[in-house]
Amino acid sequence: MSSKTKTATIGSSSSKKFGMNSKMKSTLIGWSFVMIAVIMICTFYFYPMVQALILSFQSGTGTNLEFVGLDNYKRLLTDSTFLTAVKNTFIYLIVQVPVMIILALFLSVLLNDRTLKWKGLYRTAMFLPAVTSLVAYSVIFKYLFANDGLVNTMLLKFSLVPDAINWLADPFWAKVTIILAITWRWTGYNMIFYLSALQNVDQSIYEAAKMDGASAFQQFFKITIPMLKPIILFTSITSTIGTLQLFDEVMNITKGGPGNATTSISQYIYNLSFKYTPDFGYAATVSYFIVILIVIFSVIQFKVAGDRND
Amino acid sequence: MTKLKRIFMYIFLTAAAFISVFPILWMIISATNQSVDVTKGRLLPGTHFGENLTNLLQTIDLVPALMNSAKISISTTILSLLIASLAGYGFEIYKSKAKDVVFTILLLSMMIPFASLMVPLYRMFGSISQTMPAIGIDTLTSVVLPTVTTAFLIFFFRQSTKMFPKELVEAGRIDGLSEIGVFFRIYVPTMKTTYAAAAIITFMASWNNYLWPLVVLQSPEKMTIPLLISNLGSSYSPDYGVIMMAIVIATLPTAIVFFLMQKHFVAGMMGSVK
Asked: How many C-beta atoms lie closer than 10 Å to residue A217's C-beta?
């Protein structure tokens, strides 16, 4: 307490000496460094979000909007396309995120083996998909999984399937294709996070576990997973948030089809605003649904990250 | 580990690596083949590389799209780095309670999905168009402006500034440098690796950005590379050889940036965890 008053007196005496100017000037300089960023974020993030909130209570086509109260929110509950888009997005989430994370963990553990040969080669190869552009890889996957595409050609050649699988035109297989595509693109990316976390794990823990007779299986579940828990959570949340915003892949591989079997929420917002007769008010309402989901997941992440620092 | 297990491990890793590389390899191989051969499932490099390239340049406006993408990505990268590093430096070096509150509020913007911004942003640029068509809808500037400042990059620079020796700031002041002088003469040269990592993340994101340009760009001559590829991909009678060639060329800039600066790229990824 006494030291605080002391600095306060020193502060006030120095400001007496130089006038209030130097302190004010320093504060002003500090703010001017951050000013452009603050203005830009407010203009292009916060202001539009307020606009979207106002829009979500309005309805009409194009610029002819009028206030309709909660009508848009009521419409959400009975809009079958919206419900399908939500269902699709959650199917992607529930199937794809866990499969990808387990696969990435498994690969990172194998690659962390010190006696492994060609480690760099494997790592680079598996990370390569993460360098491709979303649109470019989506188009490639679309061609690979086309009815007469390479995947079907190969499956038929080796008699793995009796007939060609209608990857893109069958509601079930179209979802599978999207999930396979996202998994291909992001597994290596997540693996790099685990690999660098694993390199920080003290090897002597494993040595000790081996001496105590722990199997590789036990080492994985009893040491590796607990040690990597924070990073597994981080990647799960970022993958979840990414999947909630899924757009490029669905748009370029299946266009949301067949019917609406693969439509994602983001794509539905796009369709409502720019493909069908524009209904900006309802599109804004749907978009607030994703905002709420992301806020929930982010709060979980902040909470867990906070616990980690304690 | 038993020998059998080791063999299994190598088989598994090789399979995973093969699956990872195969679509990319197939894209490159197909760029050298005729469309008919691609459909037949030819997996060997062909002799139609030159032919595909000529056809591509004659039938598709690849070069203007490349130029548009280059203009957008380079200006986005330069502006992003400048704005975010100034802010990251400001928040850390001129730390105050009020600034920390503002910083936390800025971080909240990371939670906003782009899908919910696109409608209000589109309307915003629509109304700007009426008074200032030069930065309104369908201009390259309208692509750059909303994407140029991200809370993530500000956060990234602030985290890195924590490692920056504060004595250097004092030393600079004693040497008679102005506050902004300290930033440009001392901070920027010291933080080269941070800038490199930030540049890669920003350039790649900007080069590959699809949704916002799709919304805001309308005329064909403004098209960026992802829009062009997407259009080619949905054409009814695709010439596979030519399209694959286009994708290869479109992927080259990011691939080159990545391989030249691989270490910084991973450093940038890890920066997001801190």
From this structure: 8
